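Data availability excerpt. The first of two example chains:
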Amino acid sequence: MRAALVTRPIDPATLVAEVADHSCGAVSIFLGTVRNAHAGKAVTGMEYKAYEPMAVRELEAILLRARERFAVEHIVVEHRLGRLELGEVSVAIVAAHPHRREAMDATRFTIEEIKKTVPIWKLEHYADGSREWVDPTRGAPPVQPPANVAEVVG
């Protein structure tokens, strides 16, 4: 079990190898990628920022809850920080379990909890040159990260 914030590209194959275990007959992968549109606006890329100590603690707590809830011992999550281009992986969750239902449920649970509780913010860059902070809970108006969040992008 591992949770990490990274500034390098995420390699799903490496994460699959990390959770591989001969006792497991199922591996579930969730990849969140940068898409080219949001709320009717053309997106050209985005930046992710986080309150890193709290974000890592919360990611680890989510994985502990997933382990307890779905009896999944082999699970890893990486969330990217910094500038990302279209199509790049922003978050990857990989879970291995003896059975597919639990592996799939663990990845779904993990991404839903990340969206609700982890202090990670995204700044979308639009084709018209504008930029906007997007609330990760999706239903609320745009937000900016707190002023004390360390800059993770140049």
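And the second chain:
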Amino acid sequence: MISLRVKIDEASCEGHGRCYALAPALFEPDEIGNASVLGDGIVPAGEEDRARRAVANCPEHAITIDAST
């Protein structure tokens, strides 16, 4: 089974909020409005499409998805 994990390059994030608007189970705003990964970043079953949408909609390309087996 393949496990997906989202990561944010905090230096690149400018706080547009698209990721936490599109995938609130995966991301939240930090104290200044930049994105923060919830928990350990593991994408729960059923949230894969939302994770991919968040990656595709990040203006700074600050979000990545790593896949592992």
